[in-house]
């Protein structure tokens, strides 16, 4: 047996056992490919940060009907939940329930795979390559020989905010997903949340559920807040992949929204969003990120209706306020945070005093700031580079990572949110399940049938 054939008997090493890594492992095992799934936090195995939450108020932002783990079995999650395909299909179930679903799928896949699957409890610190194989070195010194490595590192913590970093830790939660971040705050009268997306909504709900009865101010550049899903799933008429770009595309979508409603117009683009992104130049993508991204996010990434109603009740009671402005300063003022900001469209500066500040400004995409030893090593070795927009790792459409010189590597790949620069829409379950489905077939040398996974 030559060395290349011998390499094919080695496993695919997946670094990260959250949603993306777990689902890739399950799909690879279905095709008979050996897998070594590496996860440093055993509690997050098959769940990750999003689905590892233990808080029942954190709901999925996608209906149960569209949460199957498998694109070739659209009703799999409905059957697992014992839901009907009519009324219950519109439910938004707790994310902790979905985490249980994923873990059960992994356990089942592991049982069927036997010795072809390994779960490695450890932290990947370095990746190396020889002529035909790859090696993953762990923090404890062990080395895993493999035929290829897939980075499935999920979303990173929020980027450090230069204005807020001076605050002491008892006044500032730099990562809203830290365990216990919202606990013990019931006696506070005022909390500031920086950023107004879905994570901010989670924090507000968790504060309310934990006994906090004070006021929450949500500050963002534009003061936007996520919109809500309709109570029942939309009936979307498929549309051809639009070939227009830029302002013309926006005009067409707005016109369509006027005819069928904005939800239908946005949902009709779902199968084509990644292709639309790829057809635009780097400069055009940058203009979108600079000017339109916040508006796209609130229309595309929506709240479950019940969550939106809870937030509306808090707003009506004066306990929740959305403010548009730019942070200017923050200091410890006798055990409270004195925060100043410039309201949008104004020259003057206003200040508020709060008992805690939460950074919910979205995941950091700067690879040089992320505290992940394997990324630091790969960067220093020239095996990876940032994408053009600093959203994550630079990859091609198959997920193969580009090195520092821009060369595609067949033995180093990536999936999930860290590939956002190439695909843009790659954070929701429907998008990631299609991505890992395609990558699993590629790595297993399975024939791709057009249309599957859409």
UniProtKB/TrEMBL annotation:
One Pfam family named in its UniProt record: NAD_binding_9
Signal peptide coordinates: none
Keywords (A to Z) from UniProt: Membrane, Transmembrane, Transmembrane helix
InterPro entries in the cross-refs: FAD/NAD-bd_sf (IPR036188), HpyO/CreE_NAD-binding (IPR038732), L-asp_N-monooxygenase_NS-form (IPR052189)
Record-annotated FAD-dependent urate hydroxylase HpyO/Asp monooxygenase CreE-like FAD/NAD(P)-binding domain positions: 13-155
Keyword Iron-sulfur: no
Record protein name field: FAD-dependent oxidoreductase
């Amino acid at each position: 047996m030559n060395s290349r054939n011998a390499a094919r008997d080695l496993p695919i090493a997946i670094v990260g056992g959250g949603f993306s890594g777990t689902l890739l492992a399950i799909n690879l095992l279905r095709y008979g490919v050996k897998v070594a799934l590496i996860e440093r936090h055993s509690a997050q195995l098959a769940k990750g940060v999003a689905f590892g939450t233990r808080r029942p108020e954190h709901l999925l932002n996608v209906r149960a009907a569209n949460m199957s783990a498998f694109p070739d079995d659209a009703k799999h999650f409905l059957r697992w939940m014992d839901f009907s395909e009519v009324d219950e299909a519109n439910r938004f179930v707790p994310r902790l329930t979905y985490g249980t679903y994923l873990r059960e799928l992994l356990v089942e896949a592991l049982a069927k795979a036997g010795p072809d699957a390994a779960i490695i409890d450890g932290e990947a610190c370095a990746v190396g390559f020889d002529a035909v194989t790859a090696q993953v070195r762990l923090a404890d010194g062990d080395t895993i020989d493999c035929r290829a490595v897939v980075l499935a590192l999920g979303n990173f913590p929020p980027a450090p905010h230069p204005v807020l970093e001076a605050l002491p830790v008892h006044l500032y939660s730099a990562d809203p997903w830290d365990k216990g971040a919202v606990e013990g705050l019931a006696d506070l009268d005022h909390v500031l949340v920086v950023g107004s997306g879905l994570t901010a909504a989670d924090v507000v709900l968790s504060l309310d559920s934990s006994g906090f009865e004070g006021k929450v101010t949500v500050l963002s550049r534009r003061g936007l807040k996520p919109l809500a899903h309709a109570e029942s799933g939309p009936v979307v008429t498929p549309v051809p992949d639009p070939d227009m770009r830029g302002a013309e595309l926006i005009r067409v979508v707005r016109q369509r929204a006027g005819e069928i409603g904005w939800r239908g117009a946005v949902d009709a683009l779902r199968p084509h969003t990644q292709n639309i992104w790829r057809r635009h130049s780097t400069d055009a993508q940058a203009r979108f990120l600079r000017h339109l991204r916040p508006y796209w996010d609130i229309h595309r990434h929506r709240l479950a209706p019940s969550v939106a109603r809870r937030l509306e009740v808090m707003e009506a009671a004066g306990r929740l306020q959305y403010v548009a402005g730019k942070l200017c300063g923050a200091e410890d003022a006798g055990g409270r945070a004195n925060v100043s900001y410039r309201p949008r469209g104004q020259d003057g500066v206003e200040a508020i005093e709060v008992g805690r500040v939460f950074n919910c400004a979205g995941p950091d995409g700067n690879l040089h700031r992320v505290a992940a030893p394997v990324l630091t090593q790969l960067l220093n070795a020239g095996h990876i580079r940032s994408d053009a927009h600093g959203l994550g790792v630079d990859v091609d459409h198959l997920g193969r990572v580009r090195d520092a010189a821009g060369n595609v590597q067949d033995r180093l790949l990536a999936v999930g949110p860290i590939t956002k620069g190439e695909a843009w829409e790659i954070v929701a379950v429907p998008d990631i399940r299609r991505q890992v489905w395609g990558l699993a077939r590629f790595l297993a040398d399975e024939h791709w049938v057009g249309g599957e996974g859409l």
